[in-house]
């Protein structure tokens, strides 16, 4: 099931979306759907990083490179 959402955009952003849709051959709904999905994923990742930062610090993992080296 899908929900319909009406969104107002500033004129410049609406023009950019229209141009991007034309250039890529995609419809605006697909572009907005993908954009919202990506935005929410990034927000969840930021929240998760913030929650895990104290545990990583206790383990001596101070940078993302430290974490990458630990899991590699």
Automatic annotation (TrEMBL):
Superkingdom assignment: Bacteria
GO biological process: regulation of DNA-templated transcription
InterPro entries recorded: Arc_rbn_hlx_hlx, CopG, Ribbon_hlx_hlx
Signal peptide limits: none
Entry-linked SUPFAM superfamilies: Ribbon-helix-helix
Family matches, as Pfam families: RHH_1 (PF01402)
Residue ranges occupied by any Ribbon-helix-helix protein CopG domain in the UniProt entry: 4-40
Protein name per Swiss-Prot or TrEMBL: Ribbon-helix-helix protein
Organism lineage string: Bacteria, Pseudomonadati, Thermodesulfobacteriota, Thermodesulfobacteria, Thermodesulfobacteriales
């Amino acid at each position: 099931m899908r929900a319909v959402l009406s969104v107002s955009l500033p004129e410049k952003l609406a023009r950019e979306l229209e141009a991007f849709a034309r250039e890529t051959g995609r419809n605006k709904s697909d572009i907005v759907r993908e954009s919202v999905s990506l935005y929410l994923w990034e927000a969840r990742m930021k929240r998760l990083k913030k929650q895990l930062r104290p545990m990583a610090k206790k383990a001596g993992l101070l940078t993302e490179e430290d974490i990458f080296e630990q899991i590699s």
